[in-house]
């Protein structure tokens, strides 16, 4: 009987671990989508086309579109390149708070004039 209790405990821990892993994966995917959306919002705010950013990055427009849609994972180097082209701090692109991000856009817009 003791062996069964320890096995049940083991399987319970495994299930909790799997749930945590799935949650973390979902959270990371969600955060990546937010960053991709922030990139798109800033690009549109700057009135840049996808073709323009793609050319600056040395990739096709289709490849760039996948970045904005969150279909492609981007490296830190690529994120730095994008933030440089968009004239925004890399950390600001990673803002997960919508209201804060709108404020960042407004501040950067007024400082560019």
Automatic annotation (TrEMBL):
Pfam families: HTH_3
Keyword DNA-binding: yes
All copies of domain HTH cro/C1-type, residue ranges: 39-93
InterPro entries reported in the protein's UniProt record: Cro/C1-type_HTH, Lambda_DNA-bd_dom_sf
UniProt key word DNA-binding: yes
Source taxon at top rank: Bacteria
Alphabetical UniProt keywords: DNA-binding
Gene Ontology MF terms: DNA binding
Protein name per UniProt: Helix-turn-helix protein
Organism in which the protein naturally occurs: Pedobacter metabolipauper
């Amino acid at each position: 009987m003791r062996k069964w209790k320890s096995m049940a405990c083991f399987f319970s821990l495994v299930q909790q671990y799997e749930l945590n892993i799935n949650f973390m994966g979902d959270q990371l995917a969600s955060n990546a989508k937010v960053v991709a959306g922030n990139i798109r919002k800033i690009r549109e705010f700057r009135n840049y086309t996808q073709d323009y950013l793609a050319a600056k990055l040395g990739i096709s427009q289709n490849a760039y579109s996948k970045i904005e849609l969150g279909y492609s994972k981007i490296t830190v180097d690529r994120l730095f390149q994008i933030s440089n082209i968009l004239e925004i701090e890399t950390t600001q692109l990673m803002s997960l708070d919508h209201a804060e991000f709108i404020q960042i856009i407004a501040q950067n817009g007024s400082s560019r004039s």
